[in-house]
TrEMBL record:
CDD domains: HAD_5NT. InterPro entries: HAD-like_sf, HAD-SF_hydro_IA, HAD_sf, Pyr-5-nucltdase. PANTHER family: HALOACID DEHALOGENASE-LIKE HYDROLASE. This is Haloacid dehalogenase-like hydrolase (HAD) superfamily protein. Gene3D superfamilies: HAD superfamily/HAD-like. One of its GO terms (molecular function) is hydrolase activity. Keywords: Hydrolase. It comes from Rhynchospora pubera. It comes from the Eukaryota.
Length: 254
């Protein structure tokens, strides 16, 4: 662990969480099912040659942050809602089970808690519901939040992590102070961008630090042992040190 950035004495006011493969383990299989659904969409809806799909899917993800953003950048025209319905609407959500341990940990944290995901709001709602965590977060910053699109055929590029612009937009939308915010994500490149945006960073799902990460957290269940700073001074917090809930311009979950 690199705890230097956590030892400044500043109280944390907000916790910004990625959702998929962060609040639940990658071993659930949701990630793999999502990739298969994207590849199916590319083949059947966009008529991309079968032999090209797997590599193209991965290459676009690496270059643009999401395969969807890459397809848009290449000029493919598709309806965003239809894409999400095909990719997320067919996921095996039954593999996600309620996590009362994580729920209790989240509810015990005195800071504002916000989800920041590249996924659409319907997927976020489904995942949080399956995990039993709907009451734990003030709101969700998602695809619709960063991409206020009235026309899917517009030429505007898709904004998503790990773009610095997306990270800065999330900070602005949530009205948070990066220096007093901890960002949790399983993606090394998202962590690097979070650090570039001035956030404290925790890479989740590994015990190995990645560039830009202050802390490596194998599981969210270990958060109290790894980051006791989150709970420090909770008995004597005054009204000035607890930030009051602010409106998040997206789906409000709690």
């Amino acid at each position: 662990m690199n705890m230097d950035s956590f030892s400044t004495g500043a109280k944390f006011e907000c916790l910004l969480f990625d959702m998929d493969d962060t609040l639940y383990p990658m071993s659930s299989g949701i990630n793999l099912a999502c990739r298969h659904n994207i590849e199916d969409y590319m083949r059947h809806q966009l008529s991309i040659k079968e032999s090209e799909v797997p590599k193209m899917c991965l290459d676009l993800y690496k270059e643009y942050g999401t395969t969807m953003a890459g397809l848009k950048a290449l000029g493919y025209e598709f309806d965003y809602d239809e894409f999400h319905a095909n990719v997320h609407g067919k996921l095996p959500y039954d593999k996600l089970k309620p996590d009362p341990v994580l729920k209790q940990l989240l509810l015990s944290m005195p800071q504002r808690k916000i989800i920041f995901t590249n996924a659409d709001k319907a997927h976020a709602a489904q995942v949080l519901s399956r995990l039993g965590l709907e009451e734990c977060f003030e709101g969700v910053i998602c695809f619709e939040t960063l991409n206020e699109v009235e026309d899917s055929k517009s030429d505007k590029r898709i904004l998503c992590k790990p773009m610095l612009e997306a990270m800065e937009a999330a900070i602005r939308i949530a009205k948070i102070d990066p220096k007093k915010t901890i960002f949790f994500d399983d993606s090394a490149r998202n962590i690097a961008t979070g650090k570039a945006a001035g956030l404290h960073t925790v890479v989740v799902g590994t015990s190995v630090l990645v560039p830009g990460a202050d802390v490596a957290l194998e599981s969210m269940h270990n958060i109290k042992e790894a980051l006791p700073e989150i709970w420090e001074g909770t008995d004597q917090l005054d009204s000035d040190s607890v930030i009051q809930p602010a409106s998040v311009e997206t789906v409000v979950l709690a």
